Amino acid sequence: MNSTPELTLENFREGLVKRNPGEPEFHQAVMEFAEFVIPYINANPKYLKAKILERMTEPDRTIIFRVVWEDDAGDIRVNRGYRVQFNNSIGPYKGGLRFHHSVNLSILKFLGFEQTFKNSLTTLPMGSGKGGADFNPKGKSEREVMRFCQSFMTELSKHIGQDIDIPAGDIGVGSREISYMFGQYKRLKNEFTGTLTGKSLEFGGSLIRKEATGYGCAYFMEQVMNHRGDSIKGKVCVVSGSGNVAQFAVEKITSLGGRVVTMSDSSGFIHDPEGINEEKLAYIIDLKTVRRGRIKEYADKYNCKFFEGEKPWSIKCDLAFPCATQNEIDEAAARELVKNGLKALAEGANMPCTGEAINVFLDAKIPFAPGKAANAGGVAVSGLEMTQNSIRLSWSREELEGRLKDIMSGIHKQCVTYGIEEDGNYVNYVKGANIGGFVKVADAMLAYGVI
Ligand code: NDP
């Protein structure tokens, strides 16, 4: 009889790097997952024998295409568009589109891979994907953004559909970009279906979709604190970013009684020791989504400090919420946070902490909620948007917020089930989220046989 040798982290890493050269972000995301899942796979030979991990780390397909558009000066511009359709074992491909100059295959594969387990944790029937382009909407006119989105969708529309692949927003893709893309999809296909989520309310969008990732992250942190007999109330909180996720994380943290003292953008961070209250947050939302300005303007208006080119992790806090981008907390920043008395961290962004930083938190036994659990609220409400589109109904804000809360608390339960340590006290949320997300997808893949 054939006996499959056990997986080791080193052998697996070697194969992964060989198959995917020059993709450091993808290697990082997969290895963070593999560290906790390999022992589980070795202990459950049905997954080992079926080579589930090797299959899961290979996307179903990757589409790369040319996006040509004309700028306001009449010059022709060429960008590269992508869609990585990662895994559709438990539902159609689902995941955001990112428009940012840094977009490349490695980043989209890391995001698509993480999305597999995040979507599984929500318990909704959603597979995983991610896409985008190396296009930077910053500094472009409305018309230029529109022309780019239309050209991008002209090709993408051939590969997506309400039962095939349902993209959403991510960095650089907000409601404006989704609207342009949805309009073009509708025009090309002559159909009105829920093929994109994050749509505006007037044409099939869902209430609280734009708030969902930030709200969900705050709810998740509340669960983490409650599990330890504590809460967000009265805690000093440090948030990075000032985009979609950060804005609504700040709103919910504040309503749960926390005091948020920082926000940031790619030019630096502001420190407002009195806290960013409702009125100040409304200023930031207008600054970032309407005027598309820089965070420094907040410091000028509210007379607080702006730290140019810096990240907020040196500020003393109880709770940290990185909500900007990947790898924004390295080992040194993690050590500083721990030294300053950090009680817990929840990732609003995808992979904002490096592997070394995560180990600092785990070694210090600080609850660390990884993005695939803590920021799953966005895709969860996207899943609910798909349901509403399919049944041609819209649910109320209360109904949706109740469902979001239940989903976040269900994710927390799965993390505790698979991540609680033998002492029955510390929850390793990284282990819990990875194994919890893995099992459902792996069992579906096993059921399908060798495909
Ligand atoms: P936005 O584009 O709305 O905001 C991104 C924010 O992060 C901005 O403040 C931006 O600053 C800042 N930022 C971007 N790149 C960098 C960088 N290299 N260094 C420092 N700051 C940076 O994006 P979202 O809020 O939607 O997404 C933020 C994170 O959350 C991403 O990791 C995304 O993948 C993740 N996420 C988003 C979900 C969603 O529903 N939107 C769902 C789940 C995860 P600036 O204005 O200067 O560019």
What are the defining features of this structure?
7-stranded mixed β-sheet; binds NADPH dihydro-nicotinamide-adenine-dinucleotide phosphate; alpha/beta; 451 residues; 5-stranded mixed β-sheet; Rossmann fold; 48% helix; 12 strands
Could you characterize the architecture of this molecule?
This protein has a seven-stranded mixed β-sheet. Strands 1-2-4-3-5 form a five-stranded mixed β-sheet, sandwiched between helices. The chain is an alpha/beta fold. Among the domains are: 61-192, 3-Layer(aba) Sandwich (Rossmann fold), CATH 3.40.50; 211-369, 3-Layer(aba) Sandwich (Rossmann fold). Helix content is 48%, strand content 15%. NADPH dihydro-nicotinamide-adenine-dinucleotide phosphate binds next to helix 9. The site of NADPH dihydro-nicotinamide-adenine-dinucleotide phosphate (NDP) has 22 residues, from helix 9.
Strand order of the largest sheet: 9-8-7-6-10-11-12
C-alpha Rg (nearest Å): 21 Å
The residue ranges in which pLDDT falls below 50 over 5 or more consecutive positions are: none
Distinct ligands, ions and cofactors found in the model = NADPH dihydro-nicotinamide-adenine-dinucleotide phosphate
CATH architecture of the domain at 211-369: 3-Layer(aba) Sandwich
* CA-CA gap between termini: 22 Å
CATH level-4 homologous superfamily of the domain at 211-369: NAD(P)-binding Rossmann-like Domain
Q: Which sequence of SSEs, written as H and E, runs from N to C?
A: HHHHEEEHEHEHHEHEEHHEEHEHEHHHH
